[in-house]
Structure formats: structure tokens, C-alpha cells
Amino acid sequence: MLAVWVDQLLGFASGALSAIRQQEHYPDFMTWVRDKGAQAFNGDVATAQALAPILWSQTPLERLDFASEPLATPGRNEPCWCDSGRKYKQCCYRVNFPTDIPEQMMWMLSLREWKGATLKAALDSQQAPPQALLEAGLIAAESGQTGRSMQILESLFDGSDWSRLPEQAEPAFEILLDIYQERGFTRKRADLLDDVMERWPAVFARRGA
Ligand SMILES: [Zn+2]
Predict the structure, then answer these.
(1) Residues forming beta bridges with residue 67, ordered by sequence position
(2) What confidence tier does 209 reach under pLDDT thresholds 50, 70, 90?
(3) Distance between Cα 40 and ligand 1 center (Å)
(4) Which of 28, 99, 127, 197 is packed most tightly, with the most Cβ within 10 A?
(5) What pLDDT is attached to residue 207?
(6) Do residues 137 and 143 lie in contact, with contact meaning Cβ atoms separated by under 8 Å?
(7) Ligand 1 centroid to 97 CA: how many Å?
(8) How far, in Å, CA of 140 to CA of 147, rounded?
(9) How far apart are CA 50 and CA 108, in angstroms?
(10) Which residues are placed with Cβ below 5 angstroms of ligand 1, an ion?
(11) Which of 46-50, 169-173, 202-206 has the lowest mean pLDDT?
(12) What is the separation of C-alpha 40 from the centre of its chain, rounded to a whole number of angstroms?
């Protein structure tokens, strides 16, 4: 059951991302959700409608320099945020999902799809949640996309505030060092090591360096 839900959720989220990218306009997106998006849930419009505002709220928008446009959760007696015309308590409030919705799913999917100038602009915007950069960088490395992985992980470590680095950033640091090694970027590798020694002593203590 759960595996089916996760597949449906991912399928819906991928479709939703493409639909949002068309215009980055909420009403147009909701039209897609009702007309086409619900197919991901075998025509269950209620589930699609209830998910859509949550996914929209976490999607980085190119027209906002990759910030998102989060919607406020309606009060129970207010009009539902899915634009169904019903009250929230009679609409999406009643829909339960089998799992929590991962907070960074739309960033993760975006980091997987963006290419070239758009990927660069998105990373330069510094809007990406560090956890999304970490996971997307690791996934890209695992699937052999070393260029993409390097670009994403560099962005993770370029941020000036290393206290924002996720706890599990250490494997990402290892992978980035390996990529530099593999590609012969000795200078970049040395600079990263210097940076880490200076700014992240705890990791070096554990590495025994
Ligand atoms: Zn609703």
C-alpha cells in the first residue's frame, strides 16, 4: 500500500512541477491538477487537490529568483486553498495522506531537472535548502552525474554559514573531494581541504587528520 502511495506521490509531484513551470501561476496549476493531475491517483481529485497547495508552497519559482510563494493554511471556515469554492473544513482539511509530505521534495525534483544556466542561477540564488542540496548532490553522484553533483555540492559548501550545513554533510564532503581528484582539480581539492580544516575542525578530528 505504502509503496503504491509513494509512487503515486512522486508521479504527481513530477507532473506538478512541469505544470507549475508552464506559467508559475497558481490558478493555472490548479486547473492542471483537476484536469490531469488527479490521474496520478486514479482520478482521486480530492487527494490531488489537497496535495497541490502543499507542493506549490514549497516549489522554487524562477520568476521570484527561486524563492517560493507559500500559501497560508486557511482557517476551518475560510474558503479552501485549492480553489474548490468549498470551506476548508469541508474540503482539503478532511483529506489524510498515508505519509508526511517531504518538505523539500519540489526542490529535490527541481535540482534533478534543471540544466545549464537555470541550474547555475538557482544555485547562485542561495535559496536552496542545504538538506536538498546535500541529497540532490549525493543522488547525482550515485547516478554517475559527476558534473551535476560537483556543481550542487560546491553550492552546499560555498554558503558562507557552515553552521547551516546538515549534520550528514560529511559524506558529501568526501564525494566532492573524490570528484576533484577524479577530474584532476587539485587546486580546488586543496582549497576545500583548507576550508574544512579552518571552519569545520570537528570533522577533521574524526578523520584523524
Ligand atoms: Zn480543498
Answers:
(1) 61
(2) very low
(3) 17
(4) 127
(5) 54
(6) no
(7) 14
(8) 9
(9) 21
(10) 80, 82, 84, 91-92
(11) 202-206
(12) 20
Q: Grid coordinates representing 27?
A: 490558478
Beta bridge partners of 87: 79
**Angle between helices 105-113 and 130-142 in degrees, nearest 10:** 50
pLDDT digits 0-9 by tens, 169-187? 888 999 999 999 999 999 9
Grid cell for residue 143 = 547516478
Q: Give distance in angstroms: CA of 163 to centre of ligand 1.
A: 38
Residue at 163: amino acid letter = S
* 3-class SS string, 103-165: CCHHHHHHHHHCCHHHHHHHHHCCCCCHHHHHHHHHHHHHCCCHHHHHHHHHHHHHCCCHHHC
Rg (CA), the chain: 20
Mean pLDDT of 108-117: 94
| DSSP state for residue 102 in the 8-state scheme | P
| Helix (H/G/I), strand (E/B), else coil: 74 | coil
Alpha carbon of 84 to ligand 1 centroid (Å) = 6
Q: What is the 3-state composition of the chain as percent helix, strand, coil, each rounded to the nearest 5?
A: 70, 0, 30
